[in-house]
Amino acid sequence: MPTEHDKRPAKPVSAARSAAYVVVAVTAGFAFPLQSRANGSLSDQIGSPIVAAVISFLGGLILLLAATLTVPSLRAALRRLVAAIRQRRCPPWYLLAGVFGAYLVFAQSTAVPVIGVALLTVAIIAGQTTSGLIVDRIGFGSGTPQRLTAGRILGVILTVVAVIWSVSDSLATEFTWMIVLAFALPLLAGIGSSFQQAMNGALTRESGNPFAATVMNFTTGTLTLVVVAAIELSVGATAVSGGHVQWWMLTGGPLGIVYIAASAFLVPRIGVLLVTVAMVTGQLCGSLGLDLVFPTGTDGVSLSTLGSLTLTLVAVAVTSGLFRRRYRGAR
Predict the structure, then answer these.
(1) Which residues contact 193 (CB under 8 A, 6 or more apart)?
(2) How far apart are CA 291 and CA 304, in angstroms?
(3) Looking at the predicted structure, is the pLDDT value of residue 212 above 70?
(4) Residues 114, 119, 125, 130, Cα dihedral to 10°
(5) Are residues 105 and 172 in contact, defined by beta-carbon separation less than 8 angstroms?
(6) Do residues 67 and 74 make contact, with C-beta atoms less than 8 angstroms apart?
(7) Which of 163-172, 190-199, 283-292 has the lowest mean pLDDT?
(8) pLDDT in tens, 5-56
(9) Buried-exposed string 156-176: b where 16+ CB fall within 10 A, e elsewhere
(10) Which residues contact 269 (CB under 8 A, 6 or more apart)?
C-alpha cells in the first residue's frame, strides 16, 4: 500500500501523458480480478485449488525463463542479485518472497468459487492495508521506519468495516465455516502481500531490475506449490478431476506478470501513490464487473458488496493521503 513517503517521478510528466499513464494503470488493475477468476475457475474445473495454483505459477515461470534466456539485461540483473545475496547485502531468506505469492494464488483458487472476485478483492486489500502499517512502522525491507499517520490508521479502520459489511449478508442468511474460511484465506494473503512487496523492493534495489525479483518469486513459489501438491496427492488429501478446462483458465500466470510489469513501468513515471490508487480502482471495478456479468458461487452482487467495494476505495484513498494532498493543494 502507498505511504506518505512514496517515490516521486524523477522527471516532470505532462498532464496529458500523466493521464494516459493513469489509464494504463487502471487497465492493468483489471489483470488481478481476471487472474483471480482464471485461477478460481481452473480450480473449480479440476477440483484441486493447489494443483490450479501450480499450473498458474508454472505458466508464469515458463514465460519468465524464456524472457531471461533471450534478454541479456535480465540475466545481468539476476547475476547482480545472486552477488548481493552472496555478499550478504540482502538477507538470503528474502528469496522466499514468492511463498507469499504462492499462497495468494492458492487463496484465489480456493475462495473465488465460494465468494466471488469482488469480495476476495476487498479481503485482500483489507489485509494489505492492515499489515502495511506494521511493515512501514518497523521499516521491514527498507530499514527505514515510518511514522503512523491518522490517515493510515483511519484507512485500516475503514477497510475492516468494509470486510465486515461485505460478509454481513452471507453470514446473516446462512452462517457456514466455509464462508468464514473463504474470507480468511484472502485476508491472510493480503497481510502477507505487504511483506512480500517489501522483500521484493529490497531484491529490486540490489538487482536494479524488478524482473529479477519477479523471476525469483515465480521460482520459489512454483517449487513451494509443487512440493505441497505432491504431498497432498501422495496422501490422497486432494484429487484432480477431469473437468472442462478452457484456454482462458490457464492465463493466471501471464496475467500476474502483466500486473507486476505494469507497476514496475509506471512507478518511475507517475509515482507509487497514483499507480496504487489507479490500480486498486481497476481491481475493484474489474472484480465488480466480473461478478455482475459472470457470477460464480455467490448470488450475484448484493448491496453490501457494492457498499464494501466503495468503502474500500475510499479507504485506499484515505490511507494514501490523497485527500490530504488535494486539500493542501487547494489551499
Answers:
(1) 100, 104, 124, 127, 128, 131
(2) 14
(3) yes
(4) -80
(5) no
(6) yes
(7) 163-172
(8) 444 444 566 777 877 888 888 898 899 889 989 998 999 888 889 999 999 9
(9) bebbebbbebbbebbeeeeee
(10) 9, 13, 21
Q: Please tell me the predicted confidence (pLDDT) of residue 215.
A: 92
d(CA 74, CA 47): 36
Q: For 94, what's the count of Cα atoms within 13 Å in the CB-facing half-sphere? A: 27
What is the C-alpha separation between 198 and 200, in angstroms, rounded? 5
Q: What is the pTM of this model?
A: 0.78
At residue 142, the pLDDT reads 65
Domain edges within the chain: 15-330
How far the first Cα of the chain sits from its last, in Å, is: 26
Instruction: Identify the residue whose cell numbers are 519468465.
Output: 64
Average pLDDT score over the chain:
81
178 burial via Cβ count (<10 Å: 0-12, 13-18, 19+): exposed
For residue 243, give the nearest of 87, 89, 42 by alpha carbon.
42
